[in-house]
Amino acid sequence: MSKETLIELKGVKKRYGPAGDVLRGIDLRVEPGQTIAIVGPSGSGKSTLLNIIGAIDSPDSGSVRIRDKDPTTMSEPDLAAMRARDFGWIFQAHHLIPHCTVLENALLPTLAIGDRRAGAAFVDRARALLDRVGIASLADRRPGQLSSGECQRAAAVRALINGPRVLLADEPTGALDAANAAAMIELLLELHRDAGAALILVTHAPPIAARMGRILELSNGRLSAKGEP
Amino acid sequence: MNALRWIRRSLWFHRRVHAGTVLGTCAAAAAIAGALLAGDAAKRSLRNSAENRLGNVQIALQTGRRLVRHTMAEELARQTGGQFAPVLALRATAASASVQPLAIQLIGAEKRFWGFARPGRVTHPHGDGAWLSPRAARRLGTKPGEWITLRLVREGGIAAEAPFAPTATGAEPARIVVAGIVPRDALGEFSLEHGASPPDNVFVPLTWLQEHFGLSGRVNLLLGNGCEATAANAALRRSWRIEDAGLELRPVPATGELELRSREVFIPPPIAEAVMRAVPQGRGVLTYVVNEIACGERSAPYSVVAAMPPHVEGPVAAGMPPNSIVLNDWLATDIGARSGDTITLRYFAPGDGRRLIERATTFRVAAIVPISGRANDPTLMPDFPGLAGASDCRKWDPGFKVDLSKIRDKDEAYWDEHRGTPKAFITLREGEALWANRFGSMTAIRFPATDANSLAASLARAIDPGSLGVAFRDARAEALRAAEGSVDFGGLFVGFNMFLIASALLLTALLFAFTVESRRPEAGALLAMGWRRTAATRLLIMEGAALAVMGMLPGVLLGIAYMALAIGALNHIWLSTSGSAPLGMHVSISAAAAGAIIGVLLSCATIAWTARGRLRGPIRALLAGEDPDAGTARFGRGRAGWIVVSILGVGAAVAMFLGPQPTGGEAQAMRFFGAGAAMLLATVGAAAAWLRHSAIAAPKSPANFSPRQLAWLGVARRPGRSTATVALLACGIFMVASAGAHRRDPLSGADRRDSGTGGFALLAKGPVALANDPRDRAAMADLGLSAKTAAQVHAVPGRVRDGDDASCLNPTKAQTPRLLGIDPGELRSRGAFRITRAIPGVKVADGWGLLDTDLGSDVVPALADESTAVWALGLGIGARLPMADGRGHRFEVEIVGLLAPSILQGWLVISDRNFLDRYPDASGYRLLLIDAPPDRRDAAQLEIGRALADMGWEVRPAVARLADLMAVEHTYLAIFQVAGGLGVLLGAAGLGTVLLRNVLERRRELAMLRAIGFSTDGVRRLVLREHILILALGTACGIVPAVLATWPAIRATGGTLPLLGLTCTLAGVIAAGALSVHAATRRALAGNLVAALRDE
């Protein structure tokens, strides 16, 4: 595996009950700074693939290496630590904690690292990121008081707070209108550039996919570069 | 943000959802704290009551019928350094101007007695008046300044059933003014017995009582403090004098001898044996009054005959052939007898009770002696009551029927000149063969002339007071043991609440599971961003723990209310049956804290278990909010597990029922609760397995698809949730149903011989023994019954040995239960009562014959009501209870059989024969089981009540006594049922919440049904049907174990299931559940359902 390779999947297969094989041997290499869009029809396994990349699911067969480590052999604490350090997640449903303020939600991943000495620095960083995404004034509000777009921005800040190497976004614009969706993608790309993290995004929308450096299509359990057979 | 802040925020944010969980934790804390508080309050009350009764008394000596010198107290104090008080405590009756005679404890006390009051509580009753305990004052309806009339049972002297005992029961009235009321905690409730109701005490000055009733200088109770019982007994032995054994030594002028006499006329056998052993030169004398001495046609009435050993100076000479008699010349002349003639003695031989049977024995005249020397000795006649003091024969009033018309002038002249000088003499051996009885075989023992004082001292040394049953005992230790209660109230109430606690925890689990389920995506997000699962779970558990703590305080408050309800209900019953409310409402901080802590810990454990269970599964599943139980493979595994649980439950229940019968109430209750829980687990397990089977079963033919099937699929859709709801309902219904199944109607079949009344119409009991056998019609008529009633009423009399009431009316633990001596033949011939179990090797069918089982010389067979044996004494079949007989000898009572619940509860029933063998001094009957035709029942109650009123007897319908006993049992059942009702409420709340949750989760699905053509009512019916199915399943899972768990007990007591009552109770429970389902359905389906589709 190249030193430049962040994530490498080889022959990854996944099967779900009666639905049968969702992934039928996926090979994928992700390098730092890359932007990748994974597209495909509903039920094609895009989210499953993203979950395996992000170490919140494991393949039935094949290998996964994340920064040269096999997540399937790691202990739960090590795996959790890796998720906290290396990945930043943005979900279609933002999954903000409703009883926490926006700022607190943004800080949640820092609690996973557990470095309390860095608390103040993280707060400054969170405020800076909130300012960066344009919702600094909403820092003390709760998710229920925010619009969908604002919630998704807050989720983006939460994803970036630990300075991840890979940003994983599962349909980040699925719950947004067109204007908010476009703004969100712009924001993600800006954040990707600022942070230097790779960005892997699952989407249905071709215009959004078109903004990424690589477009991979998942179909019939197999991954191919868009336009390739 | 730290964890505390997180939890605080989350609690506030989710406050509505959490309210349900708090309700569950609150109910758990309430059930546990309530049980512990009630148990603690009961224990503390009984201990306080024991402390009140004894004050600072530590040891006590009860002398029974023999009275000791009251100066003994000073002697013991001097020897031991302790404090001792002489007391005269007598059974008596008291009547006021407005109240009929009432059985009381009449206590003659002086200031040393009052010195035993607890510090700060000393009240010195003073003056010549009577001081009453609060209860006695209340029951007599009297107050200071008013007069009461006392009648007492004379103690000491000849036993009522001894030959020549006077007919009168010794009830002598005395009027005395009420001086004041002694507070209950200042020895007002002094008693050495351990009963539910405080005694009705009337305190009078000791000297007044002694002088008024001819008992000067004597007492029958010594109380002590500052000295152990063993030291006191050693001192007693040193101070013991013959007077203390009721004996006196006096010179015999006619012979120069010394004679030992007993106040009881007949010298008790243990004393006679001890004396003869110590002074072998002693010569026993047995003097008797015969009805007639006849020689041919001529006879002399009512003559004194002395039986004595041969003496060189006569009148009985050594070597007299058998059946020889020596006559004095007055008698020989009177009946024309000469040496060698055959004469006939007619006399009353002692029969059962006071019954005297006239017998005749012939003798050959061996000699005729002049009335001189040893034959001229009027002191040979003991102080027969009614004879000894009579100035002339026509004033005789002995304890047997005398035909005064037979007394001739010359008999009168003989009496005037010679008093009781015997007219005839036989050998002691022959006299004993004719007249020895259980009270003794000698009326005097004569000793050669010697120093009276040294003889008295050596006799006192020879007579061990212990052999007369006179010994100090540790009254305080006994009282404190009794105060531990006949049942472990704490354990019992925890048992009662076990299923309520389970319900509360199930509800907590169910509602907290809803919280966790709704927050699975939140947890998934935390895990996705790198949180460890344990950390995320811990946070949720801590939040749940905070909910448990929140439920704690209201839980404890509700627990106090539960305690008040339980204690109040029990007191209400005891108040109505025994006139006292023995339990107090003590709120113990430690019990409340223990209840709160246990409640919180159990809730926390439940919450932790729930949180761990609901937060399992892959992160993606958490993020998607998927049910962790989703997936047919998992359902399949769960089904197998539940089948195993169900089989294990059945196995455990069967093992418990087929295993050895536990002894003791708590053990049996635990067996019931354990078997019930096991069967509950079995039915709920079966239901869970069925639900899971339904969830994975292959679809049925589409042609058979129906709304009912659709509803069933809805029930099986979330089998875990449905199972929890079924279990929740089943717990409550189990409690309600099993309590209902245990209820019995005392009136049902009460006339039957095998019922709890034994078929008897009335039960009479009193403090003063009836000397005459009530089986004798004449004796009944003598009581004052009308001829008609006397002819139609038949009584089975019972002898009573005082002790502790071992019935459920007494919450204290009986230390020495009362014994009831009864003729088993009387009950056997009637087929009265029902014996449910007998010792191995003996048939239950032997019935009352069990009381004649030969168990060896030191073991007496007894029958006991199940409640007496199991609950009050904690004994099972074959168990033995150590007792002391009337002479202080230890023997054992073995329970050879159990009686179905009956009016005999509270006593250990032994045969009359065994009773008299063990307590030969006991005389008369203090309990009557009375048969009366239904149309004479009221008249008999009235007449017998009136006849025995002066003796303080109480005559009640037998069924009323049975109802009293059952009322206590029913109160316990009511408490259990109330807990069950609360369980059902929790179940209904759980069902309603589950319904709301189910509908909320499925709003889009239900909206879809509307969209495809279901009507609003159709959707409602579907939801209703689903949840009614859960209700029905829960009801079945509760009823089946209830009936199965109670059936063995019902069957053993010959009862039947109260189907009507049970059906009504369950109908009410199901109706309440159905109403809850209906209300929840309406609430859940309110609003525009189809709008939910648009949310999609």
Could you characterize what this model shows?
The complex is a heterodimer of chains A (229) and B (1096). With 229 residues, chain A is α/β, with parallel strands linked by helices. Chain A has one domain: P-loop containing nucleotide triphosphate hydrolases (Rossmann fold, 3-Layer(aba) Sandwich). Chain A contains seven helices and nine strands, in the order E-E-E-H-E-H-E-H-H-H-E-H-E-H-E-E. Chain A has helices at 46-53, 76-86, 102-113, 119-133, 148-160, 178-195, 206-210, and strands at residues 7-16, 20-30, 35-39, 61-66, 87-90, 166-170, 198-202, 214-219, 222-225. In chain A, a hairpin with a 3-residue loop joins strand 1 and strand 2 (20-30). In chain A, helix 2 crosses helix 3 (102-113), helix 3 (102-113) runs parallel beside helix 5 (148-160) and helix 4 (119-133) crosses helix 5 (148-160). Chain B is α+β, with helices and mostly antiparallel strands. Among the domains of chain B are: 59-240, no CATH class; 246-462, no CATH class; 762-961, no CATH class. Chain B is built from 33 helices and 30 strands. In chain B, the strands form four sheets. In chain B, strands 21, 22, 23, 24, 25, 26, 27, 28, 29 and 30 form a ten-stranded mixed beta sheet that branches. In chain B, helix 1 (3-13) packs across helix 16, helix 2 packs antiparallel against helix 14 and helix 2 runs parallel beside helix 16. Chain B is elongated.
Fraction of residues in helix of chain A: 25-40%
Distance between the termini of chain A: 26 Å
- The assigned structural class of chain B equals alpha+beta
Count of runs of 4 or more consecutive helical residues of chain A: 7
Please give the CATH architecture of chain A: 3-Layer(aba) Sandwich
Structural class of chain A: alpha/beta
Runs of chain B in which pLDDT lies below 50 for 5 or more consecutive residues are: none
Count of individual beta strands of chain B? 30
Residue-averaged pLDDT of chain A: 85
Largest sheet of chain A: 6 strands, mixed
Radius of gyration of chain A: 17 Å
Strand content bin of chain A: 15-25%
Which topology of chain A does CATH recognise? Answer: Rossmann fold
CATH superfamily membership of chain A? P-loop containing nucleotide triphosphate hydrolases
Low-confidence stretches of chain A: none
Mean pLDDT of chain B: 84
Largest sheet of chain B: 10 strands, mixed
SS elements, strand count of chain A: 9
Task: Supply the number of helical segments of chain B.
Answer: 33
Written as H for each helix and E for each strand, in order along the chain, the element string of chain A is: EEEHEHEHHHEHEHEE
Distance between the termini of chain B: 35 Å
